[in-house]
């Protein structure tokens, strides 16, 4: 975690909601094969090339999940004010039933799940302690959204690494 915090070229992206632009409440970095271009939160991300450390983690995640990954999104939650809004990782370039391996380091925070359509469905909080891996697969992204809430109490930094397999979806008329 110390290596990743120190050596990653962290960026803070902005997001535009209802015509207003805000800075996203966390830092991020995107690594992967050159072909793993990914649109996330309405932005196109060109991946940085794998570092030895991230490639090593990728191999371990592939062994655990039994599926290949060609990219990883790093999210850095600096303190309890950093968060991630409810969303599903359901972009077309991830395919219909993506497998996502999510490695958490540092402060334990909860990933909360809400059903997309069934408002009666009970939500779910999944605590993600240091060193844990959460596998999301099957229809999870189709039916559920997830996010990280802000906290009122003080809390230390947290890193989350989501390993993904991003396909190239070419736009109509492109090859
Ligand atoms: O920080 C987390 O555990 C969630 C990250 C996430 O949902 C994402 O990167 O899409
Ligand atoms: Fe996500």
From TrEMBL:
Cofactor (UniProt): Fe(2+)
UniProt cross-references to SUPFAM superfamilies, sorted A to Z: Clavaminate synthase-like (SSF51197)
Keyword set includes Ligase: no
GO-annotated biological processes: DNA alkylation repair
Residue intervals of the Fe2OG dioxygenase domain: 68-167
Origin: domain of life: Bacteria
Record key words, sorted: Dioxygenase, DNA damage, DNA repair, Iron, Magnesium, Metal-binding, Oxidoreductase
Protein name stated in the entry: Alpha-ketoglutarate-dependent dioxygenase AlkB
